Fold this sequence. Notes:
The complex is a heterodimer.
Chain A: E1 5-7, E2 10-13, E3 19-24, E4 31-37, E5 44-50, E6 53-57, E7 65-68, E8 75-79, E9 88-95, E10 103-104, E11 108-112
Parallel strand pairs in A: 2-11
Antiparallel strand pairs in A: 1-3, 3-8, 4-5, 4-9, 5-6, 7-8, 9-10, 9-11
Chain B: E1 4-7, E2 10-14, E3 19-25, E4 29-37, E5 43-48, E6 52-56, E7 59-64, E8 69-74, E9 83-91, E10 99-100, E11 104-109
Parallel strand pairs in B: 2-11
Antiparallel strand pairs in B: 1-3, 3-8, 4-5, 4-9, 6-7, 7-8, 9-10, 9-11
Amino acid sequence: EPEVTQTPSHQVTQMGQEVILRCVPISNHLYFYWYRQILGQKVEFLVSFYNNEISEKSEIFDDQFSVERPDGSNFTLKIRSTKLEDSAMYFCASRRGGGYGYTFGSGTRLTVV
Amino acid sequence: GIQVEQSPPDLILQEGANSTLRCNFSDSVNNLQWFHQNPWGQLINLFYIPSGTKQNGRLSATTVATERYSLLYISSSQTTDSGVYFCAVEGNNAGNMLTFGGGTRLMVKP
């Protein structure tokens, strides 16, 4: 069964540093997403991406965050200057289109120290 | 935006017992999925079920869209069923995204 692949699985970074989280969505999927889950809390929507542009974003997705699809396969989330409160599990998801389910990757656990 | 409430928040079962988890949502939906978050934090898709009933082994789910709820049934529970179960919905009027409920934390004791 096709999978959404995320790398790295764990990342530790110092406060103020930039991080890039990487995702390879399923190849025939057209919609891409980032979600995050702070430890012990619910999973929260960050941003959706379609046709090479952001289609929706939440209040969490401020100017410190950006997304990019640099080539035909990768989908990245960049946090420009990390804060302690950015520590969370970040999930990438993709789907083929409306009327289809979302497939989630295994997540990247980001720890900001 | 759409509200998603799950109950109970916590559940402890003895191995072999059956359980029902509930998800209520505040608006009509295009999409509803149930996920199991395992101890490693991975979100495992259990069901894509915007309406109707589906079964997969010991698990089954029913969504009654007109009454805005979904149920996840776990029969003959096993210790490996432990973890957090999330319901997530895409509202008809809530944009192109899933909104997650707060989850039900299940512990199955041997």
